[in-house]
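Note to self: user wants both folds in one dump. Writing first protein now.
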Amino acid sequence: MSNRKKLQPGLKLALGFMLLIAIGALLLYLPISHQDGVDVKFIDALFVSTSAICVTGLTPVDISQTLSVFGSTVLMLLIQIGGLGYAVVAVLIIRLASGRIDAFSGNLLRDSWGADHRVGTKRILTVALSITGIFEFIGAISLFTVFSPHYPLGRAIYLSVFHSVSAFNNAGFDLFSDSMMKWNDNPVALITIALLIALGGLGFILYNDIIEHVRNKKKITVHTKIVLSTTIFLIAAGTVLFRIVLPGIDWKNAFFQSVTTRTAGYFSYDQTMLTPAGVALTIILMFIGASPGSTGGGVKTTSFFTAVKASFSLLLGRNPKAFKREISSDSIMKAFFVIIISVLLVALATLLLTITDPQFTSDKLLYEVVSAYATVGLTMGVTPSVSFAGKIILILMMFLGRVGFMTIISAFARKRSESARYIEEKVIIG
């Protein structure tokens, strides 16, 4: 067996992301990527590259004042690659080079999204590229109507394409220095960006399911129902709560804040002006994040839904069910595992940042860590002033958040041994 086939899909994905980050860092470090008279440290180039590949949006430098057109174009390509995922890009290259997709590459692609292995590789690839192209094209046209009255034609087109790509891939990078603050009274701009974020966060698995339902009259899967219902609930609840807890915010900006906190990173409301309740609500929504197989991060809507369902079912003494289907114990275990490990990682990273960057309050550091791990990109002003060690911590959190802790574990996990079994013992809980 070749060495390529000996590599676990999880390890191959992790290494692929690392390679892309390294290439991106080198490109962004080149003088041609910077505006005249601007010097960028390599650690900052590495940070921005990681943030782009992990579709986060955190940056220690002002992108609009630092990167040249070449540099921002490199950034946009990194965002696009990061949003689609390493596996999609790798399989697409293999497809174009050889005209075929081997079994190993197909499994890599399906594993990267958690898709059923009965789903055809070409099918997944086609859906991902088609959906991405269609939504980004429509988004760019809509944004062009916003930007064209304020910028020359070429610049308006570039801004429209860049922000459409950034929004759909839940990256949150902008070329305005203040995100969407200058457009917070423009409903077309806010709704377009918000819809792109939400649509990118639903996941390509869901789109494939809906297409199969329309074409072949197949039943909508429980996964799709959970994703849609949870997403709608979180956006609606977040909108109402932000309208209540944030002073002076109107409904359209409360809606935008609710959507963007779920892994996008754009903001139309000054994040340094958030009330304590606003900070807490934002952290909760960031932590939950988007859905599996999407361009977003977080512990995912399905993990949140499964954990809540299982918890209430346990309290009521019932088997956890959803949409007339019983949720498997394996799914419940994975959901709680992802949530618990994520909480521990966030707590550890926050603790380390309080040591490396004691000049910031713990709530701001927690906000920053959750934003990095959930690949959101919102900041309360910490990122531009964080120390070298702090940047390394945030880089690691972005990487873990995008690749997925389950992927990292599967890359090194061995098959369960059945050679020895032990007597089961109950542990007193509570």
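First done. Writing the second protein, which came from a different request thread.
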Amino acid sequence: MKPKAVITGGGTGGHIYPALSVAKKLIEKEWDILYIGSRQGMEKEIIKRENIDFRAISVAPFPRRFSFSLLKAVLVSMGGFGQSLKLLRSYKPQIVLGTGGFVAGPVVLAGSLLGAKTIIHEQNVFPGFTNRLLSRRADKVALNFGEAVEYFPGELKTKAVVTGNPVREKIRKAKRSEGIKKLGLKKQKTTLLVLGGSQGSESINQAMDRVCRYASEEKGLQIIYITGKNKYSAVKERLGSIRERNSDLHLKPYLHNIEWAYAAADLMVSRAGATVLAEITVQGLPAILIPYPHASGDHQSYNAQLLAGEGAAVVIPDEKLSGEILLKEIKKITSKPGHLQKMAENSKKMGYPEALNNIVEEIENLK
């Protein structure tokens, strides 16, 4: 009889995609998988698209302050806990894996109470609220960054193991020559990749106006600029003739084959979400990081500062970001090939190309 695992995590791609990677790998290894997510979350669409068995429960995010909304969230989550108990009693998994987000709380707790082995995965340096709570009941705590262990209670450190964050195989294996060819780039030019997250970043987009003007005059720089779907039209209109006369400015609302851009790039401008950082360090890509200032617990700042401390990135706080400051950092890094290469080497050292296999091994050891 096949072993069974319940996997849960949702709310953002940073929680969903690591969970999805593990689910697909376990299926390859002939496990039965049930994915439990929230009724309203983006995980429902993503997981069903992969033909993985999906069930939804009722959950709600917890406001940080006491209010009627907090009481409502508690009541909804209690209902979700009851639904989780019912699903797990029926499914009888040996393992429950939670990758974060408020949906993981009721599911992992239910699994623990029903006697399943539980493992949580934390992607960020500063752990999320749900994982900090669940860590007391989990049998294993898998970490993307070893530094995260300092933010868990001391007695739990014996449960912690540094696995890294799973990165899609096509990203790990993408080659520079392929990326340049697929995106119509020039191999002799320095390539800047700009990515503000799936929704785009208004502050990064505003700062990039100045960089794009500079690139239209500086012929050694080409740019892959991913604006975000909702922001593409505004950026395209603002850049106007600059875009039209510069064939080395590749403006895109979104890029499904992001592996081509990672492989082709020499330097990246980005937010500091855990998934993006796992992807770029596997590729050994230096970065200028602008942490999202409203991230829960300011976790992106913790992530970014860790890479900066290892010489793999430069950090610009969002409130200090401007076109001139961003351009100054780009010019400083790209004007010294030796410095750029050293940053690339430092980035590569921080990557975990075997993260997926590491997590799956921990799951199989718990079974």
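Dump finished. Worth passing along: The CA atoms of residues 11 and 119 lie 19 Å apart.
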